[in-house]
Design brief:
The chain has 221 residues and is an alpha/beta fold. It is built from seven helices and nine strands; from the N terminus they run βαααββαββββααββα. The chain folds into two domains: 133 residues, Molybdopterin cofactor biosynthesis C (MoaC) domain (Alpha-Beta Plaits); 58 residues, no CATH class. The strands form three sheets. A five-stranded antiparallel sheet has the order 2-3-1-4-5, with helices on one face. 33% of the residues lie in helices and 26% in strands. The N and C termini lie far apart (55 Å). Helix 2 runs antiparallel to helix 4.
Protein backbone atom coordinates (compact mmCIF):
# COMPACT_ATOMS: atom_id res chain seq x y z
CA UNK A 1 0.00 0.00 0.00
CA UNK A 2 1.12 3.55 -0.69
CA UNK A 3 2.37 5.38 2.43
CA UNK A 4 -0.08 8.24 3.11
CA UNK A 5 1.13 9.05 6.62
CA UNK A 6 2.71 12.34 5.50
CA UNK A 7 -0.50 13.61 3.88
CA UNK A 8 -2.72 15.95 5.81
CA UNK A 9 -6.22 14.94 6.81
CA UNK A 10 -8.81 16.82 4.77
CA UNK A 11 -12.38 16.58 3.56
CA UNK A 12 -12.63 14.30 0.52
CA UNK A 13 -15.57 13.85 -1.84
CA UNK A 14 -15.85 11.73 -5.00
CA UNK A 15 -18.71 11.11 -7.42
CA UNK A 16 -18.93 8.19 -9.85
CA UNK A 17 -21.60 6.87 -12.20
CA UNK A 18 -22.69 3.79 -14.11
CA UNK A 19 -25.44 3.17 -16.66
CA UNK A 20 -27.55 0.02 -16.95
CA UNK A 21 -29.54 -0.62 -20.13
CA UNK A 22 -32.75 -2.71 -20.16
CA UNK A 23 -35.59 -3.47 -22.50
CA UNK A 24 -38.19 -0.75 -21.96
CA UNK A 25 -40.84 -3.15 -20.66
CA UNK A 26 -38.35 -4.73 -18.22
CA UNK A 27 -37.47 -1.31 -16.81
CA UNK A 28 -41.16 -0.56 -16.37
CA UNK A 29 -41.53 -3.78 -14.37
CA UNK A 30 -38.56 -2.94 -12.15
CA UNK A 31 -39.84 0.59 -11.52
CA UNK A 32 -43.10 -0.91 -10.28
CA UNK A 33 -41.11 -3.18 -7.92
CA UNK A 34 -42.47 -6.09 -9.94
CA UNK A 35 -39.30 -8.11 -10.42
CA UNK A 36 -39.08 -11.67 -9.10
CA UNK A 37 -36.69 -10.62 -6.31
CA UNK A 38 -38.61 -7.58 -5.10
CA UNK A 39 -37.71 -3.88 -5.22
CA UNK A 40 -34.63 -3.69 -7.43
CA UNK A 41 -33.99 0.03 -6.84
CA UNK A 42 -33.98 -0.18 -3.04
CA UNK A 43 -31.79 -3.28 -3.14
CA UNK A 44 -29.32 -1.65 -5.53
CA UNK A 45 -29.00 1.42 -3.28
CA UNK A 46 -28.29 -0.73 -0.23
CA UNK A 47 -25.77 -2.81 -2.19
CA UNK A 48 -23.96 0.32 -3.38
CA UNK A 49 -23.70 1.70 0.15
CA UNK A 50 -22.43 -1.63 1.49
CA UNK A 51 -19.91 -1.87 -1.36
CA UNK A 52 -18.46 1.56 -0.63
CA UNK A 53 -17.82 0.48 2.98
CA UNK A 54 -16.23 -2.81 1.86
CA UNK A 55 -14.00 -1.37 -0.88
CA UNK A 56 -10.68 -2.20 0.90
CA UNK A 57 -11.83 -5.83 1.11
CA UNK A 58 -12.58 -5.94 -2.63
CA UNK A 59 -9.71 -3.87 -4.10
CA UNK A 60 -6.44 -5.26 -2.68
CA UNK A 61 -4.34 -2.08 -2.28
CA UNK A 62 -7.02 0.38 -1.14
CA UNK A 63 -6.67 1.97 2.28
CA UNK A 64 -9.44 1.33 4.82
CA UNK A 65 -11.13 4.71 5.29
CA UNK A 66 -13.86 5.64 7.77
CA UNK A 67 -16.57 7.10 5.54
CA UNK A 68 -18.65 10.10 6.55
CA UNK A 69 -21.39 9.70 3.95
CA UNK A 70 -22.49 7.51 1.01
CA UNK A 71 -25.33 8.61 -1.28
CA UNK A 72 -26.66 6.45 -4.13
CA UNK A 73 -29.11 7.92 -6.65
CA UNK A 74 -30.85 5.93 -9.41
CA UNK A 75 -32.47 7.90 -12.23
CA UNK A 76 -34.63 5.89 -14.63
CA UNK A 77 -35.19 7.03 -18.22
CA UNK A 78 -38.28 5.15 -19.36
CA UNK A 79 -38.08 6.03 -23.05
CA UNK A 80 -34.47 4.86 -23.38
CA UNK A 81 -34.73 1.88 -21.05
CA UNK A 82 -31.73 3.04 -19.01
CA UNK A 83 -30.93 3.65 -15.36
CA UNK A 84 -28.21 6.14 -14.44
CA UNK A 85 -26.59 5.34 -11.11
CA UNK A 86 -24.71 8.12 -9.31
CA UNK A 87 -22.67 7.41 -6.18
CA UNK A 88 -21.25 10.16 -3.97
CA UNK A 89 -18.88 9.29 -1.14
CA UNK A 90 -17.42 11.67 1.46
CA UNK A 91 -14.75 11.14 4.12
CA UNK A 92 -12.33 13.10 6.27
CA UNK A 93 -9.07 11.28 5.64
CA UNK A 94 -5.53 11.32 4.31
CA UNK A 95 -6.43 9.80 0.95
CA UNK A 96 -9.28 10.12 -1.53
CA UNK A 97 -12.48 8.12 -1.94
CA UNK A 98 -12.56 7.73 -5.72
CA UNK A 99 -12.40 3.95 -5.52
CA UNK A 100 -15.19 3.85 -2.95
CA UNK A 101 -17.46 5.86 -5.28
CA UNK A 102 -16.55 3.73 -8.32
CA UNK A 103 -17.07 0.50 -6.38
CA UNK A 104 -20.45 1.71 -5.09
CA UNK A 105 -21.67 2.57 -8.60
CA UNK A 106 -20.36 -0.72 -10.02
CA UNK A 107 -21.93 -2.95 -7.38
CA UNK A 108 -25.25 -1.07 -7.55
CA UNK A 109 -25.23 -1.72 -11.32
CA UNK A 110 -24.39 -5.40 -10.81
CA UNK A 111 -27.25 -5.65 -8.31
CA UNK A 112 -29.72 -4.25 -10.83
CA UNK A 113 -28.45 -6.88 -13.28
CA UNK A 114 -28.98 -9.62 -10.70
CA UNK A 115 -32.47 -8.37 -9.84
CA UNK A 116 -33.47 -8.32 -13.53
CA UNK A 117 -31.69 -11.32 -15.04
CA UNK A 118 -34.75 -13.55 -14.73
CA UNK A 119 -36.63 -11.07 -16.93
CA UNK A 120 -33.85 -10.25 -19.41
CA UNK A 121 -30.54 -12.02 -20.01
CA UNK A 122 -28.86 -9.36 -22.15
CA UNK A 123 -28.94 -6.47 -19.66
CA UNK A 124 -25.94 -4.21 -20.41
CA UNK A 125 -23.81 -2.38 -17.85
CA UNK A 126 -21.89 0.44 -19.49
CA UNK A 127 -19.87 3.58 -18.89
CA UNK A 128 -18.64 3.22 -15.32
CA UNK A 129 -16.76 6.47 -14.70
CA UNK A 130 -15.46 8.91 -12.13
CA UNK A 131 -17.37 12.20 -12.44
CA UNK A 132 -15.51 14.39 -9.95
CA UNK A 133 -13.29 14.47 -6.89
CA UNK A 134 -12.52 17.13 -4.32
CA UNK A 135 -9.93 17.51 -1.57
CA UNK A 136 -6.36 16.52 -1.03
CA UNK A 137 -3.11 17.79 -2.51
CA UNK A 138 -4.33 17.56 -6.11
CA UNK A 139 -7.42 19.66 -5.40
CA UNK A 140 -10.60 19.37 -7.43
CA UNK A 141 -11.18 17.54 -10.70
CA UNK A 142 -14.32 17.25 -12.79
CA UNK A 143 -15.00 15.22 -15.92
CA UNK A 144 -16.09 17.18 -18.92
CA UNK A 145 -19.48 16.17 -20.31
CA UNK A 146 -19.28 14.64 -22.81
CA UNK A 147 -15.69 13.43 -22.28
CA UNK A 148 -13.26 14.45 -24.98
CA UNK A 149 -12.38 11.69 -27.44
CA UNK A 150 -8.81 11.02 -28.48
CA UNK A 151 -8.13 12.63 -31.88
CA UNK A 152 -7.59 10.33 -34.83
CA UNK A 153 -4.21 10.42 -36.52
CA UNK A 154 -3.96 11.43 -40.17
CA UNK A 155 -3.49 7.80 -41.15
CA UNK A 156 -6.68 6.74 -39.41
CA UNK A 157 -9.79 7.59 -41.43
CA UNK A 158 -12.80 8.48 -39.31
CA UNK A 159 -15.49 5.85 -39.10
CA UNK A 160 -18.64 6.65 -41.09
CA UNK A 161 -21.40 7.99 -38.88
CA UNK A 162 -24.85 6.43 -38.75
CA UNK A 163 -27.81 8.74 -38.30
CA UNK A 164 -31.43 7.80 -37.85
CA UNK A 165 -34.82 9.19 -36.98
CA UNK A 166 -37.66 7.05 -35.63
CA UNK A 167 -41.20 7.63 -36.91
CA UNK A 168 -44.10 5.64 -35.44
CA UNK A 169 -47.15 5.21 -37.67
CA UNK A 170 -50.23 4.80 -35.47
CA UNK A 171 -53.58 6.55 -35.59
CA UNK A 172 -54.22 6.12 -31.85
CA UNK A 173 -50.75 7.21 -30.76
CA UNK A 174 -50.82 10.24 -33.07
CA UNK A 175 -54.19 11.22 -31.60
CA UNK A 176 -52.86 10.89 -28.05
CA UNK A 177 -55.19 7.97 -27.23
CA UNK A 178 -52.32 5.55 -26.51
CA UNK A 179 -48.70 5.98 -25.41
CA UNK A 180 -46.10 5.11 -28.04
CA UNK A 181 -43.77 2.53 -26.45
CA UNK A 182 -42.27 1.02 -29.60
CA UNK A 183 -40.75 4.31 -30.83
CA UNK A 184 -38.78 5.10 -27.64
CA UNK A 185 -37.70 1.45 -27.42
CA UNK A 186 -36.27 1.62 -30.94
CA UNK A 187 -34.53 4.92 -30.14
CA UNK A 188 -32.86 3.27 -27.14
CA UNK A 189 -31.83 0.22 -29.17
CA UNK A 190 -30.30 2.33 -31.95
CA UNK A 191 -28.40 4.46 -29.44
CA UNK A 192 -27.09 1.32 -27.81
CA UNK A 193 -25.81 0.18 -31.22
CA UNK A 194 -23.90 3.44 -31.70
CA UNK A 195 -26.29 5.35 -33.95
CA UNK A 196 -26.80 9.10 -33.73
CA UNK A 197 -30.56 9.20 -33.20
CA UNK A 198 -33.02 12.01 -32.67
CA UNK A 199 -34.03 11.46 -29.00
CA UNK A 200 -37.74 11.96 -29.77
CA UNK A 201 -39.69 9.43 -31.80
CA UNK A 202 -42.12 11.23 -34.11
CA UNK A 203 -45.70 9.98 -34.17
CA UNK A 204 -47.85 10.27 -37.29
CA UNK A 205 -51.23 8.83 -38.35
CA UNK A 206 -51.29 5.73 -40.54
CA UNK A 207 -51.83 7.89 -43.59
CA UNK A 208 -49.70 7.96 -46.74
CA UNK A 209 -49.57 11.77 -47.01
CA UNK A 210 -48.76 12.23 -43.30
CA UNK A 211 -46.01 9.62 -43.48
CA UNK A 212 -44.48 11.26 -46.57
CA UNK A 213 -44.63 14.68 -44.89
CA UNK A 214 -42.68 13.28 -41.91
CA UNK A 215 -40.17 11.34 -44.01
CA UNK A 216 -39.11 14.13 -46.36
CA UNK A 217 -37.58 16.47 -43.72
CA UNK A 218 -35.97 13.53 -41.94
CA UNK A 219 -34.31 12.30 -45.14
CA UNK A 220 -32.84 15.76 -45.86
CA UNK A 221 -31.44 16.37 -42.35
Amino acid sequence: MVDVSTKRVSARVARAAATVRFDVDVLETLMDAGGPKGDAFVTARLAGIAAAKRTPDLIPLCHPIPLDRVDIELDAYRGEGTVRITAEVAATARTGVEMEALTAASVAALTLYDMAKALQRDVVIERIELLSKEGGRSGSWRREDPPAEAPLSESEPSAPGHEAAVITCSNRSAAGERDDTSGPALVGALRGAGWDVDPTAAGVPDDEDAIAEALCPASRS
